Automatic annotation (TrEMBL):
The modification 4-aspartylphosphate is found at D55. The keyword Magnesium does not apply. InterPro entries: CheY-like_superfamily, LytR-like, LytTR_DNA-bd_dom, Sig_transdc_resp-reg_receiver. The keyword Phosphoprotein applies. Residues 2-115 form the Response regulatory domain. One of its GO terms (molecular function) is phosphorelay response regulator activity. Residues 143-250 form the HTH LytTR-type domain. This is LytTR family two component transcriptional regulator.
Amino acid sequence: MKILLIEDEKPAASRLQKLISELLPEAQILSPLDSIQTAVDWFMQHQAPDLIFCDIQLADGLSFEIFEKVKVSSPIIFTTAYDQYAIKAFKLNSIDYLLKPIDPKELETSIQKFKRLQIKPMVDIQQLQELLQPKPKEYKSRFMVKIGEKILAIQASEASFFVSEERVTFLQTMAGKRFILDYTLDQLEALLDPKQFFRLSRKYIAAIESIAEIHTYSNSRLKIRLKDCSDNDILVSREKVMAMKEWLDGK
């Protein structure tokens, strides 16, 4: 039986070799490959091994790039430091996974599983990519507001700005209507899409469409006038000026 290791950390590779040799003394453990490119080159020049132990995160990228470039039919046991709950999905398309540092008993269980199955599944690269890609954050899209006995849904896209007055937070719409919200501005800042809304000051969060005028002000600050807003003293601090300019530029 030929076993290939794909691992860029020499101590981890040496320890894994030792553990495998103790469990499978008859196995031929090939010299470890330490990068995506060396692995691709190896697979293009050699026959597939009987079993692969593959670390997910290599120095030059994620190892599933290897399987995008070359067709590999060998069963794979992944070794990884990724969270064990997220990694469970890998088991659908691989023999098993081992969390680092590798536990000898878990390694033995994985090898026994390989012996029982004696199959050579293809790695589902698309599923691995989707799992490892960070999921885009979802921002609040609507707010429920109460008007008398009625409850209405106000879309976040309808909001012109949010203002805190005497510890009460208001949402003002593009149409000039105001509604009380059960959120603080700090909470709203975390919930709103930062591409659409900006925290101007301790009192205001504004949508980009609500900006009517911007003026330079003393001490390198900016003075903002919002549409349908009677407050003429909205100041952006010097520390926030650069961030606001980048926000306006769409960066």
